[in-house]
């Protein structure tokens, strides 16, 4: 028998005899080795407006949400839909399963995903990542190094630098700034106006 096997056997025998200073085997030892992960906090939106100001927590919103305000840092929030969504906290992750009527983002490093359509988007943040699976009516991107991915988009205004936008189609575009990238995969825009340097615009026009 190896020294390691002898040592393990001695520990098992000592523990079974209840000798102090030895590891007790059984369910308590298993619980210490595999601590339970913290669960999400559930919030009922039917009670009115929701404000999340705590940091580094996980929250699950249920019901028809009206106004949702997120000021906490490093939080993860999931919700079915919302009338108005405001994110001012930094490094927040927000997932909306369906539609959001209006969204405003000012916090840095925010990650927003909308599973349905988004009516109005406004952000003056930096390093934000926004994904809209379906339609996006109006978007105003101000700030630096923000990324937007969306479906059919009506109006897009980009002011700032280093912003990266890809949409399915686009009707109207206005870009003011430098080093911005905008691409519409299909269709033709009625109006495209660009002011600044080193902007890359891949949008066809109807003219």
Alpha carbon gap, first and last residue:
86 Å
Number of strands: 17
Rounded Rg = 25 Å
Strand content: over 45%
Main β sheet profile: 17 strands, parallel
Low-confidence stretches: 2-37
**Overall form:** elongated
Number of helices: 2
Helix and strand composition category: mainly beta
User: How do the SSEs run, as a string of H and E?
Assistant: HHEEEEEEEEEEEEEEEEE
Q: What percent of residues adopt helix (DSSP H or I)?
A: 10-25%
Structural overview:
The protein has 207 residues and is mainly beta. The protein is built from two helices and 17 strands. The protein has helices spanning 3-16, 27-33; strands at 41-44, 50-52, 58-62, 65-70, 76-79, 82-87, 93-96, 100-105, 111-114, 118-123, 129-132, 136-144, 147-161, 164-178, 181-184, 191-195, 200-202. It has a 17-stranded parallel sheet that branches. 29% of the residues are buried. The model is unreliable at 2-37 (pLDDT under 50).
Give a concise summary:
This protein has helices at residues 3-16, 27-33, and strands at residues 41-44, 50-52, 58-62, 65-70, 76-79, 82-87, 93-96, 100-105, 111-114, 118-123, 129-132, 136-144, 147-161, 164-178, 181-184, 191-195, 200-202. The chain has 207 residues and is mostly beta strands.
């Amino acid at each position: 028998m190896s020294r390691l096997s002898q040592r393990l056997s001695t520990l098992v025998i000592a523990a079974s005899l209840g000798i102090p200073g030895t590891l007790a085997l059984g369910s308590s030892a298993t619980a210490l080795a595999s601590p339970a992960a913290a669960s999400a906090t559930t919030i009922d939106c039917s009670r009115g407006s929701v404000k999340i100001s705590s940091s580094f927590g996980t929250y699950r919103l249920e019901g028809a949400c009206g106004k949702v305000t997120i000021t906490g840092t490093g939080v993860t929030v999931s919700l079915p839909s919302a009338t108005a969504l405001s994110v001012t906290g930094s490094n927040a992750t927000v997932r909306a399963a369906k539609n959001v009527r209006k969204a405003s983002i000012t916090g840095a490093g925010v990650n927003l995903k909308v599973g349905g359509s988004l009516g109005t988007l406004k952000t003056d943040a930096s390093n934000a990542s926004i994904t809209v699976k379906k339609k996006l009516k109006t978007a105003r991107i101000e700030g630096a190094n923000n990324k937007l991915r969306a479906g059919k988009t009506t109006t897009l205004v980009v002011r700032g630098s280093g912003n990266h936008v890809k949409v399915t189609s686009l009707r109207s575009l206005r870009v003011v700034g430098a080093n911005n990238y905008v691409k519409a995969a299909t269709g033709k825009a009625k109006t495209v106006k660009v002011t600044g340097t080193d902007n890359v615009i891949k949008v066809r026009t109807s003219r």
